[in-house]
């Protein structure tokens, strides 16, 4: 007897994941469970498929399912948590934090992003709930102002919880994003992918620069035998059989290997028009900054492509003896502007929530390591709502990556990539997985998380009149090694603690396998509902 999830999958034109073993009666977290939560008078047992398709269900007369369901979905904090999924946050002037000082601020989890601006960056009433309302509807303006303050309090409460404990997938998030997902199954065993002898980082490609440092069009890759994966990264609107009531289901697609491990995810994007405005403002900022004077050669000429990449955050490597923030040089003011951007913080927070939903153990490993490094060094983290140590904002308007591996990232770790701009994702801007000969449509505003240290990836070209930017979040594999060495380099550890050095060396051969064992599978995630 199919449960409610099966019924929704059939009506929606999609089948639940074959690995999501759904019970005969819907578990808590399904639509029927929400009916009973919303109205205790709703006592009828869940219907069979035949009843749902043919016979009417007649609850008690005061029960208004459509209204209550819409209230539940829009007023409760469901789905993947995003820093502010309602209206812009309204902070009292006396409670607003000042921008952090990179040299003096110890980076412990804070209740607000460490680089929150003193004042909103926009003067519009949309961004500033305290702006003077226009004439015509004073009563309505007061109601909106009250609602805005309420939204701000809820957002601050969510942000405080996220800063203290990180993102955690709710019961409904598992139902919406996981149980109804359509996995992209890869014909590989992730355990067999190439990594360094330490198990912490990947290996650099042996292909020549001439082979790697060029871009490709969609048609060129199709001629090489690549296959296109259609994906719009949006939510799908689904009308229930009840009048005036609809639900949206995420088009998130987990990427699984032949052993069923979730080794990445096409996470999509948050629902709602407020995130559209986040994307619009971020693109405006990047357009404006890209048009300024030329940037330093170090950020404009690199092996990933012919575009400006501004990196910032905590890192380790290159002869360092302790973790520290990446040097920003002449771009310090621009980096501070990015760190102060509530819009970029929201983009980072969504990727963090997706990571926590699809790989909770690996997510916790990232988050714990980051906060240990931050607490030990006193270096501030980028955003309190993100477990990633570093971010790169890729600018210039025509971001198109060459084929590459981010081999210094954690070998079994994930990096988050968010696509931005104005382009046709069916014709360009695709995410290309070279080892698998896959071309994945990558629409503006959507986010993908993949193990970028072991997969060779790139983008397809966009049209001359189009624009594309991207934001990536990542953590260097060497940072994990430094923390697990007791905040020492290998040389320091060997000299000061030979026993621990010997123990760490003995783990090299099994470290990558241990790392991918932190991956989840669909059965495990679905069992949480």
What do these coordinates show?
By secondary structure, the chain is α+β, with helices and mostly antiparallel strands. It folds into two domains: 4-75, no CATH class; 181-526, 4-Layer Sandwich (Double-stranded beta-helix). 35% of the residues lie in helices and 13% in strands. It is built from 18 helices and 15 strands. The protein has helices spanning 4-12, 31-38, 49-54, 65-75, 138-165, 171-179, 209-212, 218-223, 273-290, 297-300, 332-340, 342-358, 360-377, 477-484, 490-496, 498-506, 508-516, 522-526, and strands at 184-185, 227-229, 235-239, 246-250, 253-256, 262-268, 308-315, 324-325, 390-395, 415-422, 431-433, 438-440, 447-450, 457-459, 467-474. The strands form three sheets. Strands 1-5-6-13-10-15-9-7-8 form a nine-stranded mixed sheet. It has a four-stranded mixed sheet with strand order 2-12-11-14. Strand 5 and strand 6 form a beta hairpin. Helix 9 crosses helix 12 (342-358) and helix 15 (490-496) packs across helix 16 (498-506). It is globular, with a radius of gyration of 24 Å.
